[in-house]
Amino acid sequence: MHQRGQHRQETEVTSSSKLPMAKPALLSRNHYVAVIAFLILCLTAVLAFISRSISSCTLSASLPGLTQRAASSLHDQVPEESSSQANGLELVRGKSIVLVSHELSLTGGPLLLMELAVLLKRAGGDVKWITNQKDTERNPTSQGLEAKLIKNGIQILLPRGSQTVEFVKLADLIVLNTAVAGKWIDATLSDNISEILKKTLWWIHEMRGHYFKLDLVKHLPQVGAAMIDSYATADYWKNRTEERLSITMPPTYVVHLGNSKELTEASEDVLARGLLRQHVRENLGLSDSDIVFAIINSVSRGKGQDLFLKSFVTALDLIEKTSPDKRQINLHAAIVGCDTTPNKYEMELRSFVAERKIEHLVHFVNKTMNVIPYLAAIDVLVQNSQARGECFGRITIEAMAFQLPVLGTAAGGTKEIIVNGTTGLLHPVGKEGMPILAQNMVQLVNNAAFRASMGRNGHGRVQERFLEKHMAHRIGQVLQKFLPNKNQYPRSFSAHKLL
Ligand SMILES: *[C@@H]1O[C@H](CO)[C@@H](O)[C@H](O)[C@H]1NC(C)=O
Ligand SMILES: *[C@@H]1O[C@H](CO)[C@@H](O)[C@H](O)[C@H]1NC(C)=O
Ligand SMILES: *[C@@H]1O[C@H](CO)[C@@H](O)[C@H](O)[C@H]1NC(C)=O
Ligand SMILES: *[C@@H]1O[C@H](CO)[C@@H](O)[C@H](O)[C@H]1NC(C)=O
Hints:
- 43% of the residues lie in helices and 13% in strands.
- By secondary structure, the protein is α/β, with parallel strands linked by helices.
- It folds into two domains: 65-258 and 468-497, 3-Layer(aba) Sandwich (Rossmann fold), CATH 3.40.50.2000; 261-465, Rossmann fold (3-Layer(aba) Sandwich).
- The N and C termini lie close together (9 Å).
């Protein structure tokens, strides 16, 4: 509890004067290449297989976005001389680490583990990867991702078999990714399991009820530690495991995620951002002065697009009533993350828009591998996830990197990212949140300076605690419990032990 209090204190935002300025850009060849690459990605819209997104967490939250970036971070081979790039994970040098993923696909969970795999490899770890899926479940996507792991010097192990068991027994650390990966333990290991569990770190990103099943998580009390993306989710796991399953959580660490290097670089490239903004706006038929509020998430009731659109209509009415000059109303909504074949929920959204005759103001955009063009093009991100909210919601920190204010539900990880009134505004979940979201939208429409200062504050907060290096340091601190370290490194980034 005490440590949580400290955490709350730390969430004070830095003054914007400390924020690093975006560097002025010349149209260098690199920029040009980056811009063209983004434009191509931006046009490569549909990505049906992303719909396999498995949970309410970072996974589906990151759905339209994470993918290409995470995948592209694996393009380059690990440099030979990697030890010079300290990333807070130096203590893994020479250690044998086995990462276990429940699948290998372009969804948030596996891609996050791939990012970690590369970070651990760069820090000098001997990294091995297991995908707990059948041979028949292999497909071009999983093979492509596997090839990227191999290219980065990461060895792929079969999910089962004596060789795998030997590696696991000898390993210094095993990282299980997602609650679902629990199935692998019983399927693969038999005797002496407690020794293996002791050196296992379980990284959990889920918050839905159906993950609280004994056959998935019965070994949780025996693992060395659990690592969870937000305090809200960690609290929920503690509660649910006790109440529902009568099991006790192991030592649990909250590790907030960070933005990938690629997203960070794109967000700092002022020229590319401007060109992407122009390009996307032209495609959607928007002018530069239109103010665009967007939800970038899978289209599903849990993400609250319906409530968002209703709030949008209320905001339009409010502006119409109060605006001295009605011609100045230039408020737009974008729903980014539609399926190739619209689902029932999306059809509901579309008929709502048609009934209200606001088709010209609401833009439905297909799922995309790359959210960067949309983050560059919009003015405000709306994170309207309902019920317990997002487990973490990586899109929130991605938007903040692009200096966007975020209007978010006061639930889940979102509450731990947004500083209400400073980097964005919070509204309650459910119907009672709708009028407040509408008012918050009006407030941002009417006050460009407020939008801009919130965007700058959000960017500052990301620079301070939501970059890849911060995540790496936080994970490094958790790994210290497993891998007694030889090399001391600064303790300036704290992963807070919760339970
Ligand atoms: C289990 O562990 C014990 C003690 O660590 C060891 O003697 C034994 O050989 C192990 N059994 C197997 C099957 O590995
Ligand atoms: C879990 O949550 C419920 C409802 O919010 C509460 O009544 C209960 O005391 C909590 N249990 C634990 C173990 O925290
Ligand atoms: C989005 O998907 C729909 C349905 O497949 C398709 O008709 C439409 O052309 C796509 N839009 C874009 C911009 O690719
Ligand atoms: C957010 O701040 C506003 C005032 O800026 C306040 O009215 C509202 O209650 C706050 N919401 C939460 C969830 O703290």
